[in-house]
Amino acid sequence: MKIEAKNLGFRYDGYPWLFRNVDLTIQPGEIVGLKAPSGYGKTSLCKILAGYEKPVEGEVLLNGEPINSKGFHPVQLIFQHPEKAVNPRWKMDKVLNEGWRPDQSLLDLLGIEKEWMTRWPNELSGGELQRFCVARALGPDTKFLIADEMTTMLDAITQAQIWHAVLEIVRERNMGMIVVSHEEKLVQRLCHRVINLDEITSRM
Ligand SMILES: Nc1ncnc2c1ncn2[C@@H]1O[C@H](COP(=O)(O)OP(=O)(O)OP(=O)(O)O)[C@@H](O)[C@H]1O
Ligand SMILES: [Mg+2]
């Protein structure tokens, strides 16, 4: 699905504008890097696109339509810190199957082991936990994926495994995707194009 941001503007209550007049369009199948210095509002923009925050100005459209705010959100966001994204009081099988039931082939692709299912989130490493967050985000109703520093905290092998799995699914389903990363090489390798948030916005 095509995602569009039209004239987006955002500020936290009582703070100056982070960005205004942001327009962007990402086509199905397009993988787009999002760059800007730290603190410029990349994560805030991602949260708006995925429905965690409401824009102060403008709107987000999927295939030309506003996103229905009820039920499963078709734009899924994967954060840098998986431990903040899961309920610490749920065992992993409940965390995993909250929104949909991933099949065994996806679990294998992501290297999720059966034995982890009966553990609590704090009994897994960051990389193991992030695999669950990725699986959870890739439900059949997901139309667009945002990876905000998805593998920044992980070692090279885990990074490569997770990216391999994500890209396989994204390509197979012709999904669009935004990649936020400070790792220039990763962005250059993965993305069809790169948007510089500091170049497409006015902060006044
Ligand atoms: N809930 C909040 N209330 C007030 N200010 C906030 C809130 N969340 C973030 N900010 C501020 O908004 C600005 C943008 O934050 P954001 O996390 O979007 O930046 P970022 O571009 O993702 O940075 P980084 O590259 O470090 O991840 C920062 O100055 C941050 O301190
Ligand atoms: Mg950020």
List the keywords.
204 residues; alpha/beta; Rossmann fold; five-stranded parallel sheet; four-stranded antiparallel sheet; 8 helices; 9 strands; binds adenosine-5'-triphosphate; binds magnesium ion
Overall average pLDDT: 95
State the CATH superfamily name: P-loop containing nucleotide triphosphate hydrolases
CATH class: Alpha Beta
Q: How much beta, percentage-wise? A: 15-25%
Structure description:
The protein is α/β, with parallel strands linked by helices. It has one domain: Rossmann fold. It is about 30% helix and about 25% strand. It contains eight helices and nine strands. It has helices at about 40-50, 80-85, 90-95, 105-110, 125-135, 155-170, 185-190, 195-200; strands at about 5-10, 20-25, 30-35, 55-60, 65, 75-80, 145-150, 175-180, 195. A five-stranded parallel sheet has the order 6-7-8-3-9, with helices on both faces. The longest helix has 17 residues, at about 155-170. The radius of gyration is 17 Å and the shape is globular. The mean pLDDT is about 95. The structure holds adenosine-5'-triphosphate and magnesium ion. Adenosine-5'-triphosphate binds near residues 12 and 38.
In short:
This protein is of the alpha/beta class.
Describe the secondary-structure layout:
Elements (H helix, E strand, L loop, with lengths): L2 E8 L8 E8 L4 E5 L6 H8 L7 E6 L2 E2 L8 E4 L3 H4 L6 H5 L7 H6 L16 H12 L6 E5 L7 H17 L3 E5 L3 H7 L2 E4 H4 L4
Bound molecules: adenosine-5'-triphosphate (ATP) and magnesium ion.
The site of adenosine-5'-triphosphate has 11 residues, from α1.
